């Protein structure tokens, strides 16, 4: 037997990709305590909390308009299924939370769709779940958006990628205004 045959089976990990946007991010830096572009492991039995209180919340938002604990995410496995999901719960008494167009009041919770937009106040978070098999932990991968995710994501979600391997949607957000081209230009 080779070492490859004796190696343990590699387990895939469920990863929650979250892209954050706020119109005043450049001036107020409310996301400065978040760890962007690096995957972070969270134990499956932990509740991932988002909010202003760094003693309680794993993901800290530096903004006095954010509740001490704004919302939480709980990783779980559906009953009689091998499917893993996230549940989102609004923990703010003052601010309603919307998930896609579903409004959640204080202590309301729902299953997080595999791809959705979470909003509260001026905050917009695109959440996308990448499925995995691990039962011990999940990962979060945070990203910072330069443009509102509500506008940016109004495009169809599964656009075909041309043979060049470069998706045209990558370039749509770079320019703020459309540019005119002469059809005879190369």
Automatic annotation (TrEMBL):
TM regions (residue ranges): none
Statement: the UniProt record of this protein carries the keyword Membrane: no
Principal subcellular localization: cytoplasm
CDD domains the UniProt entry points to: FHA_TIFA
Keywords: Cytoplasm, Immunity, Innate immunity
Domain FHA: 49-121
Cellular localisation: Cytoplasm
Top-level taxon in the UniProt lineage: Eukaryota
Similarity remark: Belongs to the TIFA family.
Protein name: TRAF-interacting protein with FHA domain-containing protein A
């Amino acid at each position: 037997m080779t070492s490859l045959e004796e190696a343990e089976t590699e387990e895939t990990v469920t990863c929650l990709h979250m892209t954050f946007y706020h119109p005043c991010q450049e001036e107020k830096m409310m996301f400065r305590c978040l760890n962007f572009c690096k995957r972070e492991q969270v134990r499956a039995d932990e509740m991932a909390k988002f909010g202003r209180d760094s003693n309680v919340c794993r993901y800290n938002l530096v903004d006095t308009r954010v509740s001490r604990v704004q919302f939480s995410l709980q990783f779980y496995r559906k009953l009689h299924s091998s499917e893993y999901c996230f549940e989102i719960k609004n923990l703010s008494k003052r601010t309603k939370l919307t998930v896609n167009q579903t409004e959640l009041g204080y202590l309301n919770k729902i299953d997080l769709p595999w791809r959705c937009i979470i909003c509260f106040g001026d905050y917009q978070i695109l959440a996308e779940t990448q499925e995995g098999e691990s039962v011990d932990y999940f990962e979060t991968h945070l990203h910072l958006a330069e443009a509102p995710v509500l506008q940016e994501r109004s495009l169809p979600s599964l656009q075909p990628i041309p043979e060049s391997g470069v998706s045209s949607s990558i370039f749509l957000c770079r320019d703020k205004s459309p540019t005119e081209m002469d059809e005879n230009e190369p």
